Amino acid sequence: MENNISNLLKLDRPLIIFDLETTGLAVSFDRIIELAYIKVWPDGRMQKDDILINPEISIPKESSDVHGIKNEDVEHAPVFKNLAEDLLAVFSGCIYSGFNVIRFDLPMLKNEFARAGVAFEYSKDEILDSSVIFSTKEPRTLAAAYKFYCDKEHGNAHRALADVEVTLEVLVGQLNKYKDMQNWENVKNIHTESDSRFVDSERKFYWRDGVAYFAFSKFKDQPLENIAKLEPGFMNWILNADFTEETKDIIRKAQIGEFPQKNV
Q1: Are strands 95-98 and 15-22 parallel, antiparallel or unpaired?
Q2: Strands 205-208 and 211-214: what pairing?
Q3: Which candidate in 37, 131, 154, 248 could, as Cys together with 100 as Cys, close a disulfide (CB 3.0–4.6 Å)?
Q4: Cα–Cα distance between 38 and 101 in angstroms, integer?
């Protein structure tokens, strides 16, 4: 596939498929610790590399648990600003591809270049995001799941009982397909693992080194404890706005000095 993609796409410029591992999910704050890419030219030539980068900030345990990269692994790696010019030469003038690059990897990379004083610009018509293709061509709807797991068409979609009946069939199909999911503990672990980086089910707060941070608002990527002390007006606004009781309960407790504690 790597050698044929230039023929399949009839490229008029290089295509670079890349992925980042980072210190966290906050594009404005976190840093790149690993950058891997495959660059394909229109004539089929390829170049690939996998680079570890010293982020110059600590890697939270929550992130290390995901990608396995620890502070000691990048302690002696080069910092991004010393790689910026060479990476700009690699990335400039390309079509940018990867899985979810449009929402995460490209903005993260652009911010890293900016910190290094290097301008890196791109437009949406230069992006080929596999996750967008996937969600467009294989929509994640109940009807699509019914077709995938049961090989049936959902002819009465959006009527409540019909949707419930189809959902039951889909669940049975999933349990038959994924035998490990017939163990209830494994089913619970899927949800636990998917939410392990967040404090709450609403994903309004996330963990960083065991501390709760805002995942929304103008105080996004700021510690809850700091904002509770410095911005009481903002905390009161949340309590009077249209937020869930779960979010409001976290805020109420923070106002009296009780903050979420992560279970280790």
Answers
A1: parallel
A2: antiparallel
A3: 131
A4: 14
Task: Write out pLDDT tens, residues 45-94.
Answer: 999 999 999 999 999 998 999 899 999 999 999 999 999 999 999 999 99
Ordered alpha helix ranges (H), 92-159: 106-115, 130-137, 142-150
CATH architecture classification, 5-134: 2-Layer Sandwich (3.30)
3-state secondary structure of 63: helix
Q: What is the 3-state secondary structure (H, E, C) of 187-198?
A: HHHHHHHHCCCE
Domain regions of the chain by residue span = 5-134, 145-194, 205-255
The span from the CA of 205 to the CA of 211, in Å, is 10
Minimal CA–CA distance to 130: which of 90, 94, 103, 91? 103
- Please report how many Cα atoms fall inside a 13 Å half-sphere around the Cα of residue 215, on the Cβ side: 17
pTM, two decimal places: 0.76
Joined tokens for residue 244:
């869930």
Separation of CA 205 from chain center: 15
For 79, which DSSP code?
Answer: B
Answer whether 260's CB lies under 8 Å from 212's CB.
yes
By the 8 A CB rule, do 95 and 15 touch? yes
